[in-house]
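For concreteness, we quote verbatim a single protein encoded this way:
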Amino acid sequence: MRRTKTDQWTQELRDVRDPAELFGGSAQTAVLRLLTMAGKVPFRSAFDGLTLREQAFVRHLLGRQQLRLTPPGDDVSPARFVLSHSTLGKLTVHEPARGDLPTEEVVAEIALPDWMTEMLDEECLAAEAEEEHQRHELDQLLHTWHADGSLPQRLEEVIDWVERVETVLIYVQRRVFSRSDSGSSTLIRDGVLPALRDRAPADWSPEERLFVSAIQLLFRTGRAVRFEEFNGRQLSAVSLRRVLTTRCATYLRALGEPVTGQVSTATLTELAVLAGDLVELVDGGDHMRYRRVNGLTYAKDEYLLPWAQDQRRQDELPQTLRTLSGLLTEQVDDGDAPTWVRDATAAALRTAHRGGDRHELTRILEGIVLGAVVDAHADYGMSSGIRDLSRLSGPAGQYGEEVAGLKKPDFFCCVLPSPQMAADLPGDAVTDILWQVAQRMMYNRWHFVPGNFDRVEVPRQRHYFFPPLVPDIGEWGDLRHGGHSTARVRYTLRAPGAAMWKQPLTVAGRQYRGAFDIRLVRMDGPPFTLDELRTASRYSALVDVFWREIAGDAEAHGGWTPTIASFDADWYAKHTWHEPVERLVASTQTVGGRA
């Protein structure tokens, strides 16, 4: 029986809220358990999701072992704090005596002494004053846009941008600003943003003014994906300044530039522009941007990994590609992996032009994917793309009929299990997982293509996402996403292509990011490491070589490319995925699952 997202998540909430864990021990231990979903959300990220007063509350619990939580209704003290835990696993702390009433399930209460409550008041007054001061700059920015007549267009941009990322889940105090296919959608479906069209900004709520102005600035630093860095967190003027300042300082240090006092004195607009300008320089240097993704909060945090450009290639030819030598019509000499992939792809294309075996191309891609699975100790992995690359051709920058006519079946996803997974699970169970994943990735790839064009080129009715640009490491993906639950996608790696340190993939004048990738999955622990992220990125670079060779061949042959017909429902149903796995096992006589 498949385990559903609802069943699994219900059990997670039950375990985290277990009375035996919440009552009897220290309040700090119990509150941290609720706050972090028993350690599944990093403390920093969970803490950033609390209001200013809630943060002060948590800080004052730390180290005070004598404080205890009590079950709801047991505490009769007037200094009562009520702890609520939402269906999303978010902790909120309420004070009914102050008119702050919980709206989600109450799981515990606590009485703090008067002197401690007074300390909370003192800290909050100072923090609120700082926030009020910082918000003045954002309100002035909004006023300027209103005065110069650009605000209506800027609002429409924000409405459009929040549709271009998978999930927005941002808190401003108790207010939730969200857009999600699987959860709440206050921004669009509930009409929060459209309702602002007919109102002057003076009539917007403070939270609405903050959200619109902050989203405009965040977009300047790197498109709508920047919004996801505030997912599960409180968006405030203070936190916005901190994030922008830290980003600029981090980029400058990576570039070997001095971090001057100008960063600390710059306006929010200046910081956003500077961060956006520095991104391209960082991508061309010896640091790789990557993100950590948490499946519970939807947060996607960017970091820099020191990694010299000349270390980002897969030099050693993987055994999964060596085993193909006897299957190719033309002999390809062993050597470094990029050269082998380029030569083998060119040979396979020549064979296809002569009317020979067109499956040689798919075997090369299978070898790359399976090599990544084995070397990164994944349970399964994949690479997706378009079946006929010529469908992406056309005038540079123009969203023409070729692209407009694309449908989900015009894309494919090669998903392969590790030899260990293939040995441990029944063949039909493996096929079920692989085909589920393949269908989702075909949909995603179709969804990413329009994001490579200017907005004015793409019809309004065509929904799409901005394509992924930087590698990421994910955890707990199976606890929120229904498809991930059934396919047991708990820990993930993704290395999209073309990588940001390379030129975009060019197809007859059009340039593409996010046109292909390497994605790897573990169904249970441990999480992936940075070394394994490097491995995935190196293998993605081999996929890059594969597609650029096809694009170059198309240029030389009037735009024609052979169609990749494999990896459809029939390919998976017939367990064709077993062939490359069996070749690997036969060539090595070892099992390539997790070490």
